[in-house]
Amino acid sequence: MIKGIERVAPILKFQVRGVEVRMHGVRQDVPPRMASIRYEIIVDTDEPDRRLALLHDNVRKYGTVFNTVAPGTDLSGVLRRQDATA
Fold first, then answer.
1. Which Gene3D superfamilies match (predicted)?
2. Residue 45: its pLDDT value, please?
3. Which of 2, 3, 1, 14 is nearest to 54 (CA)?
4. Which end of the chain is more exposed for a tag (fewer CB within 10 A), N or C?
């Protein structure tokens, strides 16, 4: 997901100081696969909220993780701004 952000940020002229991804997955044993993945992408940026939404849309649309994992996995999450106090 971070690599996807690294790819689309220059195209969108999106200014970012840092990115953190938190994930939680549930594995199914039979057949072995990831049943679900929840993620939180935390971006350190001064970009407005509408641009954060645009970044998230682009990562979901063009990101490798989304294009390879999402079709067979319940994949969902959020992209949010890093708290100013963090």
1. 3.30.300.20
2. 97
3. 14
4. C
- The span from the CA of 9 to the CA of 15, in Å, is 7
Residues 6+ apart with CB under 8 A from 73: 33, 34, 35, 36, 37
At 86, list the tokens: 């963090």
Report pLDDT digits (tens) over 9-33: 999 999 999 999 999 999 999 989 8
Single out the residue of 27, 58, 26 nearest to residue 43, CA to CA: 58
Task: Write down the pTM of the prediction.
Answer: 0.86
Secondary structure class of 30 (helix, strand, coil): coil
Dihedrals phi, psi of 46, to nearest 5 degrees = -105, 5
Helices (H), the chain: 2-12, 49-62, 64-69
